[in-house]
């Protein structure tokens, strides 16, 4: 059985997993993310915070049943530390590994501070 590993379970990774299944992909799908929470929508968080709530509740992108129904192995609170593309294997930060046939990188982006005077 073919295995597709998706690193990153934000909206991009979750949509990739859902699209594979919608288009009839039958292989194993492993959807990996660093966070322990169910994959959630980011944009509403800042709006809720600006309006009133100092601890806005994240809205899940999909219910847990979606991942179960679509045979998507949701691997939460798992950090990928290394990818070996020759061996087609990823290494988690705890030393465990998993193999893949196809790999999708959906790790998003993080803001980078400019090394300039002025911004704090
Ligand atoms: C508070 C907030 C408000 C926003 N508001 C808006 C808005 O109003 N309009 C708009 O257009 N955009 C907004 N954005 C930006 C938008 O949410 C992002 O563009 C979008 O989330 C990007 O999705 P993504 O799946 O590509 O990446 P991300 O959502 O960043 O997901 C990447 C995932 O990869 C995982 N990951 C990364 N590295 C590893 C690793 N080594 N091992 C395992 N997992 C890893 C992370 O855990 C994360 O879950 C907002 C973002 C935030 C945070």
Sum up the structure in keywords.
FAD/NAD-bd_sf; binds flavin-adenine dinucleotide; single chain; FAD-dependent pyridine nucleotide-disulfide oxidoreductase; oxidoreductase activity, acting on NAD(P)H; three-stranded antiparallel sheet; alpha/beta; flavoprotein; FAD/NAD-binding_dom; FAD/NAD(P)-binding domain; about 120 residues
Describe this protein's structure:
By secondary structure, the chain is α/β, with parallel strands linked by helices. It has a single domain (3-105), classed as 3-Layer(bba) Sandwich (FAD/NAD(P)-binding domain). It contains three helices and nine strands, in the order βαββαβαβββββ. The protein has helices at 11-22, 43-51, 64-69, and strands at 3-7, 28-32, 40-41, 59-60, 72-75, 80-84, 89-92, 97-99, 102-105. It has a four-stranded parallel sheet with strand order 5-2-1-9. Strands 6-7-8 form a three-stranded antiparallel sheet, with no helix packed on it. The model has no long low-confidence stretch (mean pLDDT 93). Residues 7-13, 32-35, 42-43, 45-46, 79-80, 106-108 line the site of flavin-adenine dinucleotide. Its cofactor is FAD. Keywords: FAD, Flavoprotein, Oxidoreductase. Residues 4-118 form the FAD/NAD(P)-binding domain.
As residue ranges, the low-confidence spans are: none
| Total count of strands | 9
> CATH-wise, what's the superfamily?
FAD/NAD(P)-binding domain
| String of helices and strands | EHEEHEHEEEEE
Rg calculated over all Cα atoms: 17 Å
Structural class: alpha/beta
* N-C termini distance: 50 Å
Mean pLDDT: 93
CATH topology name: FAD/NAD(P)-binding domain
Lateral strand order in the biggest sheet: 5-2-1-9
The CATH class: Alpha Beta
Q: Shape, please?
A: globular
Can you list the ligands bound to this structure?
flavin-adenine dinucleotide
Strand content: 25-35%
Helicity range of the residues?
10-25%
* CATH architecture term: 3-Layer(bba) Sandwich
Please identify the oligomeric state: single chain
By DSSP (H or I, 4+ residues per run), the number of helices equals 3
**Count of the separate structural domains:** 1
Largest sheet: 4 strands, parallel
């Amino acid at each position: 059985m073919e295995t597709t590993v998706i690193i990153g379970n934000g909206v991009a990774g979750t949509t990739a997993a859902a699209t594979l299944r919608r288009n009839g992909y039958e292989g194993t799908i492993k959807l990996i993310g660093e966070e322990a929470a169910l994959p959630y929508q980011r944009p509403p968080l800042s709006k809720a915070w600006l309006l009133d709530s100092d601890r806005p509740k994240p809205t899940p992108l999909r219910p847990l049943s979606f991942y179960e129904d679509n045979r998507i192995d949701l691997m939460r609170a798992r950090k990928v530390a290394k990818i070996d593309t020759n061996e087609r294997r990823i290494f988690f930060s705890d030393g465990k590994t998993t193999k893949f046939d196809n790999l999708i990188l959906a790790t998003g982006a993080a803001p980078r501070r400019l090394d300039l005077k002025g911004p704090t």
